[in-house]
Amino acid sequence: VAAVEPVPERRSLLAAALPFTQALLAQVGRTLARAQAALAWPEGTPAVSPPPPPPPPCAPLSDADLRSYLGPGGRLLRPQDLRLHVFHGGVEPGLRKVVWRYLLNVFPAGLTGQERLSHLRLKAAEYSSLKVALAARAAPAELAQVAAAVRKDVVRTDRAHPYFGGPEEGHPHLAALQALLTTFALGHPRLSYCQGMSDVAAPLLAVLDDEAQAFLCFC
């Protein structure tokens, strides 16, 4: 650029831009100097030791392990430890029905075992009422549209699994999955139903084997 003689208009533009360019370069230099100073260790300061490696995977959560996290009356005393155990080791298949309800925050904190059973019964009754009320309140066109969108996924979700296998007509588990997802969509009109929700709800329903509890966990 310096080797080319600029025309008068370009010369005036370059002259006007020069102070701004110099100020910008000076600011960049100051910023780099601050960054270097911030990243430089003072002399004599020991280097920070690297973080410890993550704990190795542990055995899947067993019934004895679960009981160790519970206190008197069956209250869950160490929810964070329970979650970490499941994160690192998983859960024995027979315990998923119980543990998933903890992990998905179905229960308020501090409930005893008996209070958890009462809570489930209460929520099951609320779900039954909600399902009927939402279906009755929705406009026929909206209900048909949501039901059709849900049905399109329900009939092809995990059909190779024994829980969902068999003829579509009159299949109780497919009907439960359809009702669960339709109720959720009607109760959340801004979100409604999105493709793939059935892939989340299906394993919940298959493990819990209860439509109301699967709805609670899905929410």
Automatic annotation (TrEMBL):
InterPro entries linked to this entry: Rab-GAP-TBC_dom, Rab-GAP_TBC_sf
GO MF terms, alphabetically ordered: GTPase activator activity
The keyword Ribosomal protein is assigned to this record: no
GO CC annotation: autophagosome
GO BP terms: regulation of autophagosome maturation
Keywords per UniProt: GTPase activation
Any Pfam family matching the protein: RabGAP-TBC
Every Rab-GAP TBC domain range: 90-219
This protein's name: TBC25 protein
This protein's encoding gene: Tbc1d25
